[in-house]
Amino acid sequence: MSNPFTVSLVTWHDGEPLLKSIRESVFIVEQGVPKELEWDGLDENARHALAISHKGDAIGCGRMLSNGHVGRISVLPQWRKQKVGTAIMEALLAYARNHDYQNVDVDAQTHAMPFYRKFDFVEHGEVFMDAGLPHIKMALRL
Predict the structure, then answer these.
(1) Mean pLDDT value across residues 87-116
(2) Cα distances (angstroms) measured from residue 9 to each of 35, 46, 61, 88
(3) In what order do the strands lie in the sheet with 47-53?
(4) Per residue in 28-53, pLDDT tens?
(5) CB atoms within 10 A of CB 41
(6) Is the pLDDT of residue 111 over 80?
(7) pLDDT confidence tier of residue 54, bands split at 50, 70 and 90
(8) Beta-bridge partners for 133
């Protein structure tokens, strides 16, 4: 059976309202990240992956900065455990490979470390706090 959603790479210009709705719901409302930290001014120049259900609802997203930093991977609660995050990561990693990135990295929330390990990301350094949540740096050589 095929996935009940699709993932597309979009610019901030083209996807802003949908990307914002997911990130506001997951990071600001659910996780309590302050708005001023979530909206860091880096979205305009990032490549974004946007997951849309077959009903047309925005259900997940993520971004890759021009330096290979992956972030803002978020999936609405009702869509978790349905491979949405995996499809978002696969799209971002394919973008990185197609654009000859040598390495990508992520500041992973510690609870998400097993997710990133599935893609062969490796932890570096110590756990640190970001937006009040524990994170660890992880990297992947492509």
Answers:
(1) 96
(2) 24, 10, 10, 9
(3) 5-10, 47-53, 58-64, 69-75, 103-109, 133-141, 122-130
(4) 999 999 999 999 999 999 999 999 99
(5) 6
(6) yes
(7) very high
(8) 130
Amino acid 91 reads: A
> Average pLDDT, stretch 124-138?
93
Question: pTM to 2 decimals?
Answer: 0.94
**What's the Cα-to-Cα distance from 124 to each of 14, 18, 68, 103, 116, rounded to whole Å?**
34, 32, 16, 14, 13
Those residues whose C-beta lies under 8 Å from the C-beta of residue 121, and which sit 6 or more positions away, are 105, 106, 108, 138, 139, 140
Structure tokens at 57: 């609802």
CATH entry 3.40.630.30 includes domain 5-101:
yes
Q: Which residues, including other chains, have CB under 8 Å from residue 83's CB and lie 6 or more apart?
A: 3
Residue pair 10/48 in contact (Cβ under 8 Å)? The answer is yes
- Domain boundaries, given as residue ranges, for the chain: 5-101
